[in-house]
Amino acid sequence: MSAILVKEYGGVEKLEEGPLPFSVDAPIAAGYALVEIKVAGLNFIDVYYRTGLYKKPQLPYVTCDEGSGVILKLGESSSSTSSLLRVGDRVAFFRGSSGAAATHALVKLEDLYPIPSEMSFQDAAAVLLQGATAHYLTRSSYAVKRGDVVLVQAAAGGTGLLISQICHTLGAIVIGTCSSEDKAKIARSVGKADHVVNYTSNENWAAEVKSIAAPYGGVAVVYDGVGKSTFLQGLTTLKPRGHMITFGNASGPVDPISPLLLTQHGSLTLQRPTLKDYSAAGGEIEERVRELFGWIASGDIVLTSSNAVFPLSDVRSAFAALEGRQTTGKVVLTTTPTSTL
């Protein structure tokens, strides 16, 4: 029984294997469940926490907030407060836990979601956080509609693939950017991108995007999870009154800008939203997950088989691969053989 701990902020070398921060034999508090972890999902927000860009309430902490597994115990009186969950249920979560990069986690019942019978532990851990993020970005931050031209930066990444597929389902014209031809193939085949531009080999990629979008009226919205290296050029691709939504810092945080820059490019709107604020209303996150799982069940969203899978003990390599942007799809950590997932 072990966990991957961060005892001080820094690089991947700060990830250490250690004992669970609680006893699995101790009574479980009301409103919580003890979950045996099968898969933990690794996200860029886990990098931001480990480096100290974002702060956890205290150190040390168990890394990764997203995971899937099986309920082993319910807290005292919990069975009467949550009639939908039982010991033995397959569940997934992306918040409200003691940390998912571990053999076991304590998770708030309100933050557990039953995994559909046809979905694997690996897929559940790979899709929940990024899927809920893609949902609020495309349905709430900017409500994508049929005929919109949408630019998705890093379109072969885990979130990028989901955003692209949702936008395609909603009837948008999707332009994706990628850093290699292999990633471009995935953006087209899995992400259903209508056009793909390589922003590594083509230094004038923004002009190419504008040229592609021109016959359709221009780019309505940019979804940018890359950050520093793509932000300013991304602004130039937008049509007047377009929307720049920056939601990640894969290449580093965006530098401060003057609001006048938005005026100069055509009265643009700039957002830096978070899932926390788009899941605050009662039932809001449940509705997002319900629609997300519905799209998956109908085949509108196809979960990629190109996930990068690492054993929990090789967590440093998993973080390094994610931070080096060497992967497509989702990076996950497993506590069991992949054949059982």
UniProtKB/TrEMBL annotation:
Gene Ontology terms, MF aspect: mRNA 3'-UTR AU-rich region binding; NADPH binding; quinone reductase (NADPH) activity
CDD domains, per database record: QOR2
Family annotation (InterPro entries): ADH-like_C (IPR013149), ADH-like_N (IPR013154), ER (IPR020843), GroES-like_sf (IPR011032), NAD(P)-bd_dom_sf (IPR036291), QOR-like (IPR047618)
Gene3D superfamilies to which the protein is assigned, alphabetical: Medium-chain alcohol dehydrogenases, catalytic domain, NAD(P)-binding Rossmann-like Domain
Gene Ontology CC terms: cytosol
One Pfam family linked to the record: ADH_zinc_N
Domain of life according to the entry: Eukaryota
Keyword annotations from UniProtKB, A to Z: NADP, Oxidoreductase
Domain Enoyl reductase (ER): 10-333
Name recorded for this polypeptide: Quinone oxidoreductase, putative
